[in-house]
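Hey, I was hoping to borrow your eyes for a little while. No rush at all, and the record is pasted right below.
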Amino acid sequence: MTNRVINWFRYASPQTFYPLAGKLIPCFWTLAGIFAVVGLGIGFLLAPTDAQQGEGYRIIFLHVPASWMSMFIYLVMAFWAAIGLAFHTRLSGMMASALAPTGALFAFLSLWTGALWGKPMWGTWWVWDARLTSELILLFLYIGFIALQAAIDDPRRADRAGAILALVGVVNVPIIYFSVKWWNTLHQGASVSLGKAPSMAAQMLWGMLFCALACWMYSIAIALMRVRNIMLERERHTEWVRALLAQAE
């Protein structure tokens, strides 16, 4: 048992995590492609037309996974930030930095696809609804995290400052999730919940879940690619990076 724990801690070092990430990336890209084809196929070809919203409801196969991932990635980013603050591990700050752009992308997609859905359903592109506003704040938190780190030259100081911002902003995630329960909002309630049966047809549910898995696999793959680049940039003066670059030449 002790040996296994020691082996896992080995991957906290960028030098050992770098080759592991390289081996995992193709696996996650493959899974992302498979899940995307299956999810979009079910969602746009097999799922029935909604009785109330018509064909326009199919935006949920992009909107809902993007919204879920925007919140989930922020929680994971805050987790890595907390680990970095507590244990001063270099990899933790790198992982938080690698996740932020993908989280910002999903937050933007959530707002954009929500606007495309809201125009025909609500008659407007945007309302200052509790969920929409808190999701917009989440996008600003991602952008603020990225900008703050870019503004500080020293990577260690940048990681600490970003970690504090990430941990302060994490309170916004439960606000997004529970906003439709806490306030009267235009946004509809959750169609999928752990506490009750889903309020949608089985084909709709499976299509949405496969699309969510595709977004999840994509997020892991792109974060691993980005963290490898961050490692090469930050560790460029170390022997292992020099040796790696020498092999590439």
